[in-house]
Amino acid sequence: MTSAPTTSPSTSPAGAALAPHAHTRIVLPDAPAALRATLDEGAAIAWEEPVAIRTYEAGEPSEYPMYLDHRVYQGSSGKVYPIPFTESVSDVPVLREWQAVHLENEFVRLVVLPELGGRIHIGFDKTTGYDFFYRNNVIKPALVGLAGPWISGGIEFNWPQHHRPATYLPVETAIEHGDDGSVTVWCHDHDPFARMSAQHGVRLRPGSSVVELAVRLHNRTDERQTFLWWANVAARVHDDYQSFFPEDVHYVADHARRALTAFPEADRAYYGVDYPALAEQKPGADRIDWYRNIPVPTSYMIVDSQQDFFGGYDHAAGAGFVHWAERRLSPGKKQWTWGDAPFGHAWDAQLTDEDGPYVELMAGVYTDNQPDFTWLLPGETKTFTQYWYPIPAIGPAHQATPDAAVHVERGDAIAASFAVTRPQPGAILRVVQGGEVVASRSVDLVPGNVASIEAAASESATVVELLDAGGRTLVRWEPARQGTDEEPWVADEPPLPEAIDTVEELYLTGLHLSQYRHPTRSPLPYWHAALERDPGDARTNLAIADRDYRAGRYEEAHARAVVALARLTRRNAQPQDAEVFHLLGLILRRLGRRTEAEQAFGKAGWDGTWAAGSGFALAQSLSERGRNRSALRVLDSIDGVVGHDARRAALRALLLRRDGRETEARAMIDAALAADPLDATLRVLASERAPEDAGILFDVALELRDAGFAEDALDVFARAAAAPIPPSGNVRALAHYASAAVLEELARFEDAATERARARGSELIRAFPNGLDALDILTGALAADETDAVAHSLIGMLLYSLGRRNEAARHWERAIKLGLRDRVLLRNAALAAYNITHDDDRAWELYAEAVELAPTDPRLRYEQDQLALRLAHSVAERLERLSPVRDIVLERDDLAIEYVTLLVAGGRAPEAYEILSTRAFHPWEGGEGRAVAAWDATLAALGRPATEPPASLGETRAQYVAPVARHENGVTDYFATSLPELLLFAREAED
């Protein structure tokens, strides 16, 4: 049985400001009386009930699109468009009621927060009274997330990249009650980038201490997509906290495997820290499995383990946790820490009031490093399960399964301690040496208790194991096999294209840069070099065709795909891989050549890899043309190719309805919803529990439109246009333009004109169009009315995000000439004038006009001053502009630091000192170290000795030099994982 989904954004107002450190402990409600008896009987329960949490609210997202595709973020592109970017956090906490879903059984208590990406915020072991996940008792974001705010604590589920784009966005939830007494809280995330669908289900079973996570990642698009999945688990740490990896882990690697060290004893300098030298002064200081030994922000990911578990252990509390997942799917095991030193402690203070510090013990599925992306085919669904459970005082686990964990002490004796995840009456503990049982005992074990056994050490092969009463192995430990002495490989920077010998390597290097979303290296120079040597190379032409298609350059994409097809079919009419046919089908469909597109999709379906994706696209096209029986036959033919694709069930139900078979259609919808209760399209078709998020409704309407159900699409477009604007962006104008396009197809031209007028009159705040459907809709709007300034402005934003920046600049200038006066438009055009057309005077003129329209907008003031810096305006000029609006300047950390720097340079150091001493600053991504540098410069200008910066600056001096992000010659390091500048102002060549 499944309850109705709930839409997550809270409507409860923020509470009154709190006194410092008031109400810092989260108080969890007791289970409702109606569920208490069920819990007392040993079953698992779940319910929804708000939780009051001390909260520092994130600021309103920016009204300006952020084009940060060259920002280095976690080693890959920090592109955030079309998500609105949030740049501020309140310094004044309030007591806020957060929507919460509670799960509980006799052993474990969990809290899931749907308004924060569906994260598990609390994991509490009732048997030991221990929070096995770090319980942060405040919601205190820092600006380190991909789209701005990010909080520490609990488990953050990261996809399709790290940190999750939607980590601070709401998810929809539903509670599912299983026939076995389990409860599952399903959380549905509609990926704001590619519009893929992810569902994660947090599950508790009766009689078990295991936290089970069932995940369903679905590519609901027609294109192949890349993704990664990292579950980011936080653990509260101190001097006696130890992370543990399997015993076959002898090396760990940095991001992108750019560096390596031995584990657990670091045998070389790592992140600028000479661990062997530290160990000479203090034995054991090279053990990087202990938080206390790591003085700098540090990541490390295991290399080449064949085991399925890892975790963390609190020696002071005598408790910890284990993560377990099948290694064939989940090879990724990682630790991150801010570091046990003043620099890290300052970051801890930014993220909590009284809790922390913490480490992150991350588990990667389909990935073992960051960045490390794999593929999802169109229509493909990947499913997997991860498990966590608390352990009592056994020590760090040396082997673990979902049933039990064991710690083994080795010396003159073998001593093993076991813990289980469900009651095991009559469990058998034993030690086997040389094939013979040398020690054995039977004990009744329950979660939270420890059972131990001991035997004399032996030179014979030793095995320690725990069996259930029936003789089934629950966990088995034996010494890890000694690996090779050869060190694992370390990544190197690819040579320049001219230094690469073969076309194949040129193609593969470009593919790597594209697949891993490299932020500062383009694949195009490698692919162009490949085609200079072999213009007909199929792989390279196909790769560029795909890139052109995703940028909306359909004619160019078609030409490349035809070249690839010619090479592939020159001798083999049936290529081994039919991707070229699928891509041709997509391109031809966008070009309006529907019959040819259907032929291409049909041919792609000969290949099992593409049969499901191309088959659905073909069935959808046939449906649009009213060919019901043909569409149903195609759907029937692909059902056995790939199991789960909710799109197929929805399309089949629509076709059955059109055929008048309503009963069959309803049965189809009900069955599909039982398996996929939060699928948006199915819920709309069910006419109950429908989504309320405007962006999700817009995507459902597109699916209905593409299947030929125009009236249904119009209804859902209207609902999207009328829905509240969600934090993920505003689709109101686009929904009206989309309705206009559908109405024109129906020859309802007056209604179409009305919809275009509504689009022009829509609220445009945070309206950031994204995707090829939006591009085609806006292109059609301009074809209908070339004087539509709003359409020019919106399509300019989209084209700029696609890299078609000269075209974007022309659209923005056209919108301005048509009379549209909007600060977002003016600012966008100014960016393009500086970056793309290199017209500095025009850029300055446009910024001045934008500031005149919005003189109290601190973002505009900041960007205008950054442009002034690049245009070599003097210190005096910049101060003259900023000083009269000092209060506005001090609203932003970055602008305040710029202002302080100018004050010092302008001989006004006392004013700079007053600001730095009294204003609270937050470290921001891109500004690390700048507040400290301003402090030092201010003291020097005042003739005062250097001192430690005040706590109000929010940061301290780094003790060690981190891996370089940018070299002295200005070149960004190939392996940089973080880079300061937002890169809003960066000259670019013409596209």
From TrEMBL:
It comes from the Bacteria. Residues 79-391 form the DUF5107 domain. It holds the Pfam family TPR_8. Transmembrane segments: none annotated. This is DUF5107 domain-containing protein. The lineage of its organism: Bacteria, Bacillati, Actinomycetota, Actinomycetes, Micrococcales.
